Fold each of these.
Amino acid sequence: MRHADIVLTALRQIRANKLRSFFTLLGIIVSVAFLVGVVAIIQGMNAYVRENVAGAVVGTNAFQVRRTPIQVGLIDDEALRILRRRPPITKRDAAAVVAAVPDAAAIGILGSPAPQADIIWRDRTMGSVQIFGATPGYQIVQDYLFSAGEPITEFDLRAHRPVVVIGADVAEQLFEQVDPVGREIRILGDRFTVVGVVAKKGRVLGQSFDGFVLMPLTSFEKLVGRLRTTTVSVKMHNAVDVAPAMARAEEAMRVAHRLRPREANDFSVETGDALIAFWQSLTSVLFMAIPAVVCIGVLVGGIVIMNIMLMAVNERMHEIGLRKAVGARERDIRRQFLVEAVVLALIGSFAGVMAGWLGAALVASVSPLPARVTLWSVALAVALGAGVGVLFGVYPAARAARLAPVTAMRAET
């Protein structure tokens, strides 16, 4: 019997028992859909963090000198206590980094802590806006583009001018159709003039990168008091220059902090890769749970396939007897039922892939979660389905092949 005929026969058997075939496939469909959908969402989130968030936080071709690492959320309590004893990054430290990296495209100093405050313009108020204080170079490091006005300048920094640039969300919600440039806003009781509006940078997982107010570092200190620490952001002209510049900045910081050769750094020098690694370490927990859930669903689906195939063997004993009587060999019968099991599992896998794909697209359209279906997850799902068909179809196929022709034909007479 040709392979094409075997597959066509399997498809006819599945079509003849539609409802039974559907319930047979349900476990595999749900498991495969879960695998494809969850992997698509996780991969989409990883790609978004890699392509957008890391650059928005640290900057492109850039690194930061920080008091604590970005991935502090995964550090145990003892290590966290050690981090809290680290000295602050001072302006003198920042000056040492500036001297160590003279070939930088831009260097910015960001003050900390960055409080949240209400922003008031006339009778309108926008609550819980993040307030940042930085030197002008920070705007270059962060790749800020301005949709209106101009950035903060060195003159603004030296003259302690009460000026700010605002994010796109602040401009839209507070000023609506009014041009914000030149308008006065109130922050913590002080008045500041808006000199620029930063173009929209976007959102991730519902968190906006456009709801902020940035002012000169000197004005920021006057508003909130003495800085606890600073973050030094360095942007290089090319990606290949980042690693050597990080090494020079690290050496300058060790000298500034008077660390001995064997002493560990009491600061962190990081790129956006650290944020990516932090995020991927979080999503790896989900990846660890996925196989267990999928295996349970596939196991249930495989057992159902085996039971249905055993039922089919009992129902088709007369057919098996006739085929053997006209010359069919044991391997022909075994192959027929094994192919039917594999075809069932593959149909369930393809249906699950489509369901997972559509589910991921639906989640991406109605929520801030991005989704990106990957070829490896689809291939894994299809291979998983075929494997289930083979594994759980062997016993029913072997049982059908062992039936004696006379016994099989007598079963339905």
Note: The chain has 14 helices and 13 strands.
Amino acid sequence: MIGAGQVGATIVESLHDEHDLTVVDVEPPLLASLSYRYDVATVSGNGATRSVLKEAGIASADLVIACTSRDEVNIVVSMLARKLSAAKTIVRTTNVEYLEVWRERQLDVDFIVSSELETAGAVSRIVGVPAARQTDVFADGLVQIVEFDVPDDAPRGDVIGRKLRDARIPPDSKVAAVIRGDRLTVPRGEESIERGDRVVVIGSPAAARAWSAIVSPSERLVDDVVVFGAGATGVAVARLLLEQDIRVRLIEADGARAREVAEELPGARVFHATGIDAEFLERERIGRTRAAVLALPDDAKTLYAATLARLHGVPLTIGVVHDPVSIPVFEAAGIDVAINPRAVTAEEIVRWAHDPRIRQLAMLEGDRYEVLDITVRGESELVGRPFRELPLTGSLIGAIVRGGRAIFPHGEDALQPGDRAIIFTESSRVAQVERAL
């Protein structure tokens, strides 16, 4: 792996238990920190040079991950890797144009991950389920993973405050986990969901919306979004929302950039403004929008703008956070959702280093838990056994995709060879889940 920054550190944390990792970076302190915390080899030097890659053992590598903050370095690494090894290559990019070139098969790389597009996807999924603090879509949209915070004033009724065996859980959904304080449980029938809990749900998209209505009945469909900041991330978010027929307004402090984006996105209204001018916010009735996405280059300005948007009445604020240490600060300040582009990028990269049967992967709760979309082998010992007979391991099979449709299993259901199982598990148990299936 080339790059020991935030993306690289997240990847190492996820992979070090089950993989022999060598990390290359030009910053010895970053390497020292990783080697102290994890059992990984390190090489200090420029990973975009043949001599350093050879020293790192690239000739015997199965996978090369180029995840530095410089796109051109990552691409050069992948080109050299092709010459020096038979390894598959993954490149991180912050330039969507490189992704487009790769899709046109003009860049010889196995996989490219765009931080901007991954962030835009995360934002759009949150906008689709406004009560969620995190959500991901699996199996081509058939299954949705949603993480909710149950408000302290959430109404008690058919679900909140009732034992799960008696609760009217929305059809086609399962409660994967209940987090109460520092304790997480994979709930059984005697457990209940209480105010202040954090809940992870696996279900159909319709069920996800039903859960949103249960957790926060006052939340309405988001059809109008203001994006603060027209940088690469802000534009990627705006473009994706426009494709979903959501009205978008963009606020950009740089006049030349505002004019450029206005031409690039004719479907959006683009304002040349700072976004922190109270008179502007009042005049343009920003407080009446359903959601604000803060994609400014500085976390402190993002936090200030998000707080100001909330004070003007915006019900859903989503902050794009560049430093992970800012996330708890945003949450403590009342910002609804904080998304770290490096974390969502690392999540997509990690999938490639797992078992090749894993089609998709999502990380939750500071990467302590993962949701896997994995294909079941015919020789798995779990095939054909009713779910009620499976051992309690702390993992949960929340859904099965079979024949193009999603099944949300009950006790009498059983896995079949070729099923795609959507599983919630601790990150430390991923390798065991792979072996079992």
Note: The mean pLDDT is 89.
Amino acid sequence: MARYLKRVSKKIGLDPGTMVHIGKKDAMAIQIRLFDYDAGHYEERPVTTFDDLKPYKDKPTVTWLNVDGLHDVETIAKIGEIFGIDPLVLEDIVNTAQRPKMEDFGDYLFIVFKMIYSWGDKGDIVSEQVSLVLGTNFVLSFQEEPNRDVFETIRQRIREGKGRIRKFKSDYLVFALMDSVVDHYYLVLEKLGDKIEEVESKILTDPNTMIPRQTHELKRDIISLRRQIWPLRELLFELSHSESPLIEKTSEPYFRDIYDHAIQVLDTVESFRDILNGLQDVYLSSVSTRLNEVMKILTMFSTIFIPLTFIVGVYGMNFKVMPELEWRWGYYVLWGVMIIITVGMVTYFKRKKWF
């Protein structure tokens, strides 16, 4: 959080619409790939010059421009200039700390949401911001990590002409991209559920000092997921009930379907949060029970040794007149008395089911 605030502080005092990249630093060059298609036509090519883009702005076919990398703000600005994108939108695109939202600019819609594409090596949720600009016949997608997203199946469907994607307009492409992102939420939740079950099993069988740390990390992931999915639900509701001419009536049921999926994901996240809260209570109860068991055992041993210590203490005094010290069988009698006391107390504890 402190690092994020430090990056955001670079924008203080700048004019609205000033593009300042706030996100991961990447030395790799920005990568731009263009898809142009309709029912009977398909074209895919990398973009090397901005002149390559100009003919596609007003083409009747659907054009998808996929931009990987946001650190080169000049390139993003040039793309925005070609497609007529407002500077405020470009400012939000390079600022990867945006809350999921949708803004209607008349000629195009600006959509921001979070993509969860993998599970990190250390068990952390890895996510990045995806920005979409939906125009009449084009879709611009901007993301931070080059060559790492959840859109490969969409690209393959466009290449092979499978499904409805090449028969529909640009709004259906936006649906397909968002649907792929939401579907991958389930994969992350599945792994998160496995982690929770693992912690639950440890709590019930062998609770240790690492449990609170693991539970805290899982709660942090749950909070992060909830923060990303809750506004996405509102965004999808707006899209499914949008009056924009860019969203056709035939596409609204598809956005409602994603909205239902987002609700299910959010319900699962809430359930996980409740489970983790319960696991914390179970862990504290388990630790308390184990402590009580240990204290009970120690108390019983102390209780057994109290009379034995008393007897040994009495006969360990250095008085000259102690008749029992002169008894021939005194030592063996004393051992017998202590054994009888010990056996009697242990038997009593077992009858009371304290052992």
Note: Confidence is low (pLDDT under 50) at residues 1-6.
Amino acid sequence: MPAPKLLNSIVPPKGSESSPDVSVVLPCLNESRTIGRVIQEIQNAFRASEYSFEVVVADNGSTDRSDNIAESLGARIVHVATRGYGAALKAGFEKALGTCILFGDADLTYNFAEGPALVRLLLEKRATMSMGTRFRGTIEKGAMPLLHRYLGTPVLTQLINLLFGSRISDCNSGFRAMRRTDYAQWHVSSDGMEFASELIINCLKTGGEIVEMPITLRRDALNRIPHLSTWRDGMRHLLFIVSRAPQGFAYMGILLGITSLLMAVPCMVIGPAQIGPLALFDLHTLILAIFLGFIAVQSFSYGLILDSGSKSVLPINRRFLEIKEVALLRVLIGLLVFFALFIA
């Protein structure tokens, strides 16, 4: 079977001095014990493949000899002053010359022998991004903390699937491939670990298609200190995901608002009612209805704020964002008259 060609580009011959087919970008912070082996693994894999390549190491302020080791093995070094996983990758991508970008970690946990297959999948499926999925592949014993494996990553993944219509299985996979021209359209800005989520979300919001391939996650045999902070980075991922989904806040606000009205109106019209052991539509029901109404307004308002700068505003939000001051005043007066009649 002939090798899949890089789409929308002229493919330089293997070994050409012009732009390579693939730029392999490695974020690096004090990885002197593993960076050399990772680069050699990349070189062995791609020299045996159909793709020309380069290795770009985005050094994030290493104080060991990581950059020297990488440079001695032929990698290009990009020194990144701003700390953070996202900051390092953004700087590395900016300096990458390849038509495609493949990135992974410099700690030997990802198997870069699988790198050419990940690029091949991207091209054969004509996808926008290809990702390695650890959950459908092999996770060595001790390679992933139980909290990440059974709670953190699955919850965040399903939240992205629910809010953005994707069908991925591993949103926190750090082994991915994409075209450099596609990445430039996503305008990813995060400097921290939430960069991984933003990359997926921005890809999906521009109509991109993401495909997955089972990969191997290896156990860290060197007992290095991980750069990932479970609770801090987990919350940053969670808050970022929900902040990019105004529809969740808008529709939740509408649902809570309707529920509040269904509870409040009977309180004002029917009054207290005893249904078996339950006392309904009394003062307590009204207090709960008011509380839900308050939450509804806050949720819907936050959805409007998030959607105000979007290029594709939700239809329900567009009506509110484009409402004229006179129309808004009439609605407010109507509501005041409505509640005044019931109070009287």
Note: The longest helix spans residues 283-307.
